[in-house]
Amino acid sequence: MTDETITEALPPIRHWPALDLTDVEFDPVLADLMAEGPVTRIQLPNGEGWAWLVTRHDDVRLVTNDARFSRAAVLGRQVTRLAPHFIPAAGAVGFADPPEHTRLRRSVAAAFTARGVERLRDSARGMLDDLVGEMLQDGPPADLTETVLSPFPIAVICELMGVPAADRQSMHVWTQLILSSAHGADVSERARNEMGAYFTRLIGDRVGPGGEDVASLLGAAVGREELTMDEAVGLAVLIQIGGEAVTNNSGQLFYLLLTRPDLRDQLIAEPAIRPQAIDELLRYIPHRSAVGLSRIALEDVEIKGVRIREGDPVYVSYLAANRDPDVFPDPDRIDFSRGPNPHVAFGFGPHYCVGGMLARLESELLVDAVLDQVPGLRLAVPADQVPFRRGALIRGPEALPVTW
To answer: Which of 122, 275, 323, 360 is in Cβ range 3.0-4.6 Å of 331 for a Cys bridge?
Structure first.
């Protein structure tokens, strides 16, 4: 792909650096790109060349749900990207298109249905009550991230996956290395390979009919020859990594509530609005840095008067779509009564986050437990002294010092 092969006038290429943003600040580069137009061109810190960026809500939903834009076609391409790692690999569900993608996700679908997620509610609530109880017993001050927001999602996703409690810390360390670009591509890839080797053993031990956890479902699918072991392991790694995203998302959620006491007080006074309020917070919170995975246009497609050529790489921004003023009036304001709220915090189309329902359940349980059991919770340091993660693909505070 070269500029010379495209006859239409092209928008300028905007460099999008890897910014280490704090607070719940909306990425200023993304804000400028949104103001520039609904379809722009970007260059990220790694990979090669440039890519289109789509930011309007309807266009994001179109690209993510349209077979003319392919994840699989990214294989073998050095598309410009944020992280030095996350290089496309054959067989990875994140780089598969339907019907192949559908086949891969079908094997674990039972664990993520409403019934599958609900079966975890009581045990998850029990884990959370124990964690909050231990924090209260130890007394203030405390690091809410270390005591609650980090161990809770790890425990929940490991139970869902069928990972024994003794191995949770290893999973956490691997995930943090995979989700960070601060240590370099080699360290991240080594962590991914070590997690993959672990799941190869775990799934291999469960080949054949078994339980309801994800490792057992994957083992059964391998036993029926519906998946290869490599495919099963790729799915397991993706789900395990995604499960810990709740830590960073909930860290931003509580940072927001603790720096906006009016919002916190409203949720304490009106517990019935919490599910709707969490949807609004999911819409508002800038849950990742820059953009995720790219797609390739399989034919010429026109979006908002801009011709995207066959072979061009395309990114969508869910963060931008969630601030589209045509869909969300006054989008920079948090409105717990907002409705409808068709946010795309968990994505859209075939690659919609498989764990979206689980993440929502965890967010609801966290808000209920913390606000009800520690209503006097407040930051133990000034807001600008809360440390945020550096080099992280998913934004969030590294620690959340609190007192009560």
So the answer is: 323
Residue with tokens 């030095």: 84
Q: Give the C-alpha distances (Å, rounded to integers) separating 235 from 97, 196, 210, 217, 271.
A: 14, 10, 18, 11, 36
d(CA 292, CA 318): 9
Report the alpha-carbon distance of residue 364 to residue 343 in Å, rounded: 17
User: What is the third-level CATH fold of 3-403?
Assistant: Cytochrome p450 (1.10.630)
Q: How far apart are CA 29 and CA 127, in angstroms?
A: 40
pTM of the full structure = 0.90
Domain coordinates of the chain in residue numbers? 3-403
Which of 53, 44, 50, 49 has its CA nearest to residue 83? Answer: 44
Torsion angle, alpha carbons of 211, 215, 221, 224, to 10? -70
